[in-house]
Amino acid sequence: MSYPRVALLGLGLIASSMFWAMKRAGMDSHVTGYARSQATRDTARRLGLCHEVCDSVAEAVRDADLVVLAVPVGAMGELAEAMAPHLKPGCTVTDVGSVKQAVIDAVRPHLPEGVEFVPAHPMAGTEHSGPDAGFASLYDNRWCLIVPEGASEQATARLEAYWQALGANTERMEVEHHDLVCAVVSHIPHLIAYTMVGVADDLRRVSDQEVIKFSAAGFRDFTRIAASDPTMWRDVFLTNKPATLEILGRFTEELFALQRAIRTGDGQLLFDYFTRTREIRRGILQAGQDTDAPDFGRAAVRK
Amino acid sequence: MSYPRVALLGLGLIASSMFWAMKRAGMDSHVTGYARSQATRDTARRLGLCHEVCDSVAEAVRDADLVVLAVPVGAMGELAEAMAPHLKPGCTVTDVGSVKQAVIDAVRPHLPEGVEFVPAHPMAGTEHSGPDAGFASLYDNRWCLIVPEGASEQATARLEAYWQALGANTERMEVEHHDLVCAVVSHIPHLIAYTMVGVADDLRRVSDQEVIKFSAAGFRDFTRIAASDPTMWRDVFLTNKPATLEILGRFTEELFALQRAIRTGDGQLLFDYFTRTREIRRGILQAGQDTDAPDFGRAAVRK
Ligand SMILES: NC(=O)c1ccc[n+]([C@@H]2O[C@H](COP(=O)([O-])OP(=O)(O)OC[C@H]3O[C@@H](n4cnc5c(N)ncnc54)[C@H](OP(=O)(O)O)[C@@H]3O)[C@@H](O)[C@H]2O)c1
Ligand SMILES: NC(=O)c1ccc[n+]([C@@H]2O[C@H](COP(=O)([O-])OP(=O)(O)OC[C@H]3O[C@@H](n4cnc5c(N)ncnc54)[C@H](OP(=O)(O)O)[C@@H]3O)[C@@H](O)[C@H]2O)c1
């Protein structure tokens, strides 16, 4: 039920983790890989990433039954255009982009008749990037959202089975809803973390050394989030504009309400707000999407 | 060099961790404890927290050489007033509050002549609270900020040695600077996390179930931060008003600049901003204040 030949286009965190997860799952697919730069292709060869690293898109996709676009969202269209003439008739194209409407708009026009396009988005990642950042368990117990958008049931179900074999749970979603949900649970939190770290870095009255030395829970987590790849995140915000701006508008509205409560000394409003948000956390722990360990994230510091 | 008798007033996360850390350090101090509610005192007795749990403040502080105020910032003044008549002459009073100017203003007026007051703030915590949330290693390799503000060198140095024995590093700081640094590295990050989780909870177009199910890195961390104790954080924002409002003003300014860049499609600005914030993260890793493990926080999910 897996794909005999898989092509990974882009060899960063997401694609390399897919390869290691395929290996771990014992899939017997033949995997070709392509990356834009010689440096990344060399690293991939050194690491044994993919059975064959190709120097051109054409070579990589030739004969592939599944082609995975695993580059920043803003680069998907160009890549799709370059590969399109070389696709095997009847193959399936998918992507792993964090935004779906923009990717569909950029990719679909280039695809020839008879090629299935099943957009997908594994909701898993770290702040690291590049071909050496991947690991086999990245997708374990994480969600991979599938946006069928006109693909056949057969092609969709096959891609779902593939992602499940990599360790993920899958769920189908409408494209617009996907982009909104992701703005809430991922994109805007990243933007906020970037902003807060930027503020700390700007503030001349507090030195960088102090920010680093005394970084407490809260800020420390923000710095990790704000260490994520700048190209990827630039593209996310440029391409998920409507949802991003909607959620950002709501966020500043609520922040202003809390700011006013601080200014006027409205302790009851603050208390009630802070009480309500605890429930969401409880839900996430129950759903097994995080751990409740009191020393969360400090293991390596301790030793 | 330690204190023969220590009184812990308030028996939550911070005080209970202090007791377990004292025990681990093999200090031979006699520790009395007091908490407002019968329920907390009962739990403390059941856990063996403190050598003696007292039903009144007066009893708890009688004969104590060090008295630690470990209640929410807004409750410090009242507690100081209640204990003041019963303090042993020449003892040292300290606190662990997250805000320092407000605590000094609330506590100092009540203290009799000859009692030393050395405010302190251990920069360590979790999102859990209460007498059963503590653990001995909470302060290991964390900073405890000391704000001497008129205390004698002897009393200050003695408190520093005590905190070092609990595992912490200590650093002296001016009170106003303390409140600003903490607004940046802790208070505003918490406010922002609370706000973002509140926005997610409000949004009718995205259900709570979805927010919980698909919570990705970023948002997941925010929910942990936003699960912290509502009373403690209400008090922090009400009492650290000037620094909080200053940093909040800067934060919204920067957020608006990024929002405009998204709206106008200024990818270069976004890219440069996101690149700059990576450096801070590098500093924090080098300073040993966090771990770089790729599966950060997912250990318990995996098993
Ligand atoms: N990281 C996450 O947390 C995460 C989570 C879910 C989804 N995603 C999505 O997954 C995709 C890949 O992310 P990633 O984290 O794997 O990124 P990454 O580690 O930075 O790798 C990106 C890969 O894309 C290539 N690339 C970059 N710009 C390109 C261009 N203009 N043309 C052709 N190739 C280009 C890079 O090639 P070179 O190395 O040769 O430059 C690299 O191989 C993105 O669409 C992202 O939105 C990421
Ligand atoms: N948690 C952190 O991350 C952290 C980090 C650094 C500093 N701090 C500071 O440490 C202090 C204690 O925090 P914590 O985390 O240990 O809190 P906690 O776990 O919630 O415990 C607070 C304790 O204070 C008592 N208390 C609450 N309100 C009181 C009142 N009005 N009068 C008398 N006692 C009262 C509670 O008694 P009952 O149980 O009987 O209600 C409880 O024993 C706060 O000032 C906080 O700002 C906290």
Automatic annotation (TrEMBL), chains A, B:
<dbReference type="InterPro" id="IPR003099">
    <property type="entry name" value="Prephen_DH"/>
</dbReference>
<comment type="pathway">
    <text>Amino-acid biosynthesis; L-tyrosine biosynthesis; (4-hydroxyphenyl)pyruvate from prephenate (NAD(+) route): step 1/1.</text>
</comment>
<keyword id="KW-0520">NAD</keyword>
<dbReference type="GO" id="GO:0008977">
    <property type="term" value="F:prephenate dehydrogenase (NAD+) activity"/>
</dbReference>
<dbReference type="Pfam" id="PF20463">
    <property type="entry name" value="PDH_C"/>
</dbReference>
<dbReference type="InterPro" id="IPR008927">
    <property type="entry name" value="6-PGluconate_DH-like_C_sf"/>
</dbReference>
<keyword id="KW-0560">Oxidoreductase</keyword>
<dbReference type="InterPro" id="IPR036291">
    <property type="entry name" value="NAD(P)-bd_dom_sf"/>
</dbReference>
<dbReference type="GO" id="GO:0070403">
    <property type="term" value="F:NAD+ binding"/>
</dbReference>
<dbReference type="InterPro" id="IPR050812">
    <property type="entry name" value="Preph/Arog_dehydrog"/>
</dbReference>
<keyword id="KW-0827">Tyrosine biosynthesis</keyword>
<dbReference type="Pfam" id="PF02153">
    <property type="entry name" value="PDH_N"/>
</dbReference>
<comment type="similarity">
    <text>Belongs to the prephenate/arogenate dehydrogenase family.</text>
</comment>
<dbReference type="GO" id="GO:0004665">
    <property type="term" value="F:prephenate dehydrogenase (NADP+) activity"/>
</dbReference>
<dbReference type="InterPro" id="IPR046826">
    <property type="entry name" value="PDH_N"/>
</dbReference>
<dbReference type="InterPro" id="IPR046825">
    <property type="entry name" value="PDH_C"/>
</dbReference>
<dbReference type="GO" id="GO:0006571">
    <property type="term" value="P:tyrosine biosynthetic process"/>
</dbReference>
<feature type="domain" description="Prephenate/arogenate dehydrogenase">
    <location>
        <begin position="4"/>
        <end position="292"/>
    </location>
</feature>
<protein>
    <recommendedName>
        <fullName>prephenate dehydrogenase</fullName>
        <ecNumber>1.3.1.12</ecNumber>
    </recommendedName>
</protein>
<keyword id="KW-0057">Aromatic amino acid biosynthesis</keyword>
<keyword id="KW-0028">Amino-acid biosynthesis</keyword>
